[in-house]
Amino acid sequence: MTPTTVDASGFTERYRVIQSRDRRFDGQFVTAVRTTGIYCRPSCPARTPKEQNVTFFATSAAAHEAGYRACKRCLPEAAPGSPLWDVRGDVVARAMRLIADGVVDREGVPGLAGRLGYSTRHLTRLLQAELGAGPLALARAHRAHTARALLVGTDLSSADVAFSAGFSSVRQFTDTIGEVFGMPPRDLRARRSHASGVEASAGEIDLALPVRGPIDTVGLFGWMRAHAVPGVEVGGDRSFARVVRLPGGPAWFEVRLADDGRLRLRARLSALADLGTLIARVRRLFDLDADPLAVDEALSQHPELAPAVAAIPGVRVPGAIDAGEMLLRAMIGQQISVASARTMQGRLTTELGEPVSVGPEPMTLFPEPAVIAERGLEVLRGPAARMRAIVEAAGALADGRLRLSPGDDGAEQRERLLAMRGIGPWTADYVRMRVLGDPDVLLPGDVAARAGAAALGLPSDPRGFAAWSERLAPWRSYAMAHYWYAAPVTQAWRAPAETAAVADVPRPRRAPRGGRADIVVTGLAVEIPADSPASRPETESETPA
Q1: Is 71 annotated as catalytic?
Q2: Does residue 106 register a pLDDT over 50?
Q3: Residue 296 annotated as catalytic
Q4: pTM of the model
Q5: Catalytic residue among 101, 206, 322, 446
Q6: Distance (Å, rounded) from C-alpha 261 to C-alpha 259?
Q7: Which of 23, 202, 229, 366 is deepest in the core (most CB within 10 A)?
């Protein structure tokens, strides 16, 4: 099967999709029409072309390379991204995640190939063979996507749009927009809608984020609010804001649910060229490229889980805005409640973080790994072995011995993490879920998830929980979200901010060696032997951090 063709059954299925104009498939493939020389999203309202004139492409970049331009009516570049790059873990999917993060723009194709462990020539050959476009063409298509969003969604000048989207010159930007969309930038901008009435402050970018619905915004914003690190993040019922380090410097962003029901991104950046990277990371943080109907349909096939899916359609699994930060936060949260973890992370930020004024109000960047490695023991509190493990992990991140990114191979990343002190299966798999967006991660040791399973009438012992959940592959990460939301101790995550009280709980009480101890985890007490692995300081928590 070539990138420009699919087998007979695949072609028939996709042709039926474009006949029905099914919006669920927007962003998952594009339809090129030989008689017009254009390509469209599956839901394009134009008359359905004849079968003999249609070619399906996996990416818009492949359509560009084949000589097609984007439809002016449906603007396929405005569709959500493909969920395939999270569902799949092969080198092509990993490359696509890194390209979206701007690696080609920052490090070139050699940098991308080096991160993936391939030669430049072999990586180009792999992408060309499967997607019909090499890394440069794929990065170019991503820049065009970002530029279109800025042209129709902001009042930035063409020069600012060009550099924000990652183009090296205004001329390159103008030529690319003309080739991809068949019109100059000014004509593309003239097609924008002013219905939203959104006015961004000076120096801000405010634009809509395409989403494949339905989407559980209550759960997303509730999760973010419950886990928000004081000083770094601010969560509300309909918004989430934070500061983050990007390649060009610190940035502030806010994702909010607008009155028209759309998600919008408001951002202030130190370097406009970081915008494409920020958009990609925000989309991963909020899991905006997921295919919720496919997930819900699969999970609903099981009567035990169907009521939970019906009650919360479009559930999402939050990702990570920064991979190294995600690991350190997960380790800090081991064996303590979510509220206690927030307190410790806030203290760490206050003492070691970097204050910045890039946003509307002064905030603080989460401490860099090098700073935590040097001074973390002065601030962190808890079992000495666990604190040393956190500092050692920060040191490995700082000096490059440990590298984490959305382009990692899942199995290799897990193996690297498990080889480190203080990191066990729960933390390694939780990081894989959040950093890679792996849709099929189950955490059998997670107490809150097992409590949620019990509330749904499912087996709640680790072995029975894992065995029953096997039938939910490849969507076990989304099942985990349903388990968490069903747990009694996490109900505040879905409650309004003014009534949600995420209460802290006592630190684990440990019995003398050989005795028994009650380990309290986010309000759940489970009795385990004090000399078992779960009672040792080196091991990890069993709650979402």
Answers
A1: no
A2: yes
A3: no
A4: 0.83
A5: 446
A6: 5
A7: 366
